Amino acid sequence: EADFIFSKDLALKVGVRADYSSVFKSTEVAPRAALAYKSSKNGQFSLAYGNFFQNPNSNVLKFEQNLKALKTSHYILNYQYVNNGKIFRAEAYRKDYDNLIKYDTDFAQFDSAYNTSGDGYAQGLDFFWRDNTSIKNVDYWVSYSYLDTERNYQNFETAAQPNYATNHNLSVVGKYWIDSWKSQVGLSYGFSSGRPYTNPNTNQLLDERTKPYHSLSLNWAYLLDQQKILYFSVNNVLGFRNINGYQYANTPDVNGQFNRRAITPAADQFFFVGFFWTISEDKNDNQLDNL
């Protein structure tokens, strides 16, 4: 790995990594590079590329070792602006996946036929904004991500969006310090678009979506003294009944339909009460910024 400084505003980092796998008896070479350009006093662009390799999980290798290392190629464009307590970050990325594990059974098992012919991609945008100076005693941040991804791996018959991936994700967090109460009150809101799932009654792979996820949470931190904090929080105040997916019966009923049940969180709401005591030499540190 080497750094090249062309000017006070432009720098390049290049490198290469070589891995030898005794399992596959092969060597993989992965070049990587990152270019940074300071566009203004407070702003910077960066561009990165790299190849990465990883061995399959042990639950596959214990059955089959005549495979290849999994490969991904990353392309990332980033912009960041930092000025007087304000941070803005935007990122666009593309990731291409090769040599993903494929098998011909419902789960990876001893009698599965394995290969590394799978592939896929992930691309999207991430935005982040934080400001703790524009409004007195207020610190807030907003993040949003868009993800477009498909995989043709495991026992998939065709490329599809995996059930753990959501297209849209939004998070809003705010904190407000009240001097007269010696308290910090906060709220956080999270949103995710629906997750894909396979409905065996339609015979379409991961073609349906759960309803969107919503959660609004509140918290209150009371400063007993400089190092002692009493903390209360409640999750999902409005009691949204979120659904992570569905579990279908293995066999159809008398009408030929597969019955299902919703997979939900263990509890729609929960409360937390905590006491934080920070011990430090100057007797001024506490965990208020982390709550």
Structure, briefly:
The protein contains one helix and 17 strands.
Classify the secondary structure makeup into a structural class.
mainly beta
Strand order of the largest sheet: 1-2-3-4-5-6-7-8-9-10-13-14-17
* Helix content estimate: under 10%
CATH top level is: Mainly Beta
Name the overall outline: globular
Question: Ends: how far apart?
Answer: 39 Å
Overall number of domains = 1
Q: pLDDT average, as an integer? A: 95
* SS strand fraction: over 45%
The CATH superfamily name is TonB-dependent receptor, beta-barrel domain
Major β-sheet, in short? 13 strands, antiparallel
What does this 3D model show about the protein?
- 1% of the residues lie in helices and 60% in strands.
- The chain has 291 residues and is mainly β.
- The chain has a single domain (2-290), classed as TonB-dependent receptor, beta-barrel domain (Maltoporin, Chain A), CATH 2.40.170.20.
- The strands form 3 sheets. Strands 1-2-3-4-5-6-7-8-9-10-13-14-17 form a 13-stranded antiparallel β-sheet, with no helix packed on it. Strands 11-12 form a two-stranded antiparallel ribbon. A two-stranded antiparallel sheet has the order 15-16.
- A hairpin with a 4-residue loop joins strand 1 (2-5) and strand 2 (10-21).
- The longest helix has 4 residues, at 58-61.
